[in-house]
Description:
It is a single chain. The protein has one domain: q5lls5 like domains (HSP40/DNAj peptide-binding domain, Sandwich), CATH 2.60.260.40. It is globular. By secondary structure, it is an all-beta fold. Helix content is 0%, strand content 32%. It has strands spanning 5-7, 17-20, 24-27, 39-42, 48-50, 57-60. Strands 1-3-4 form a 3-stranded mixed beta sheet, with no helix packed on it. The chain has a 3-stranded mixed beta sheet with strand order 2-6-5, with no helix packed on it. Bound molecules: zinc ion (ZN). Residues 27, 29, 36, 51, 53-54, 56 line the site of zinc ion (ZN).
Amino acid sequence: MGTSVTRVTHDQRDLKVVEVTSRLVACDGGGGALGHPLTYYEVGADGTATCNYCDKKFVLAQPTGEAQG
Ligand SMILES: [Zn+2]
């Protein structure tokens, strides 16, 4: 288990939708002048969360490896 946080990276700051691999997401807008204070979000039951600052949408990636083909 442990605490897993997906942090939005600089490369992702222009993306409207970011695929994440953990329920906990940390977004600071990608940092720099266009960034915002680091804020944590938890992906909800619908599998998504939205950043209140930069409107980025986080979508929880479905685990792969089971039931494939
Ligand atoms: Zn953000």
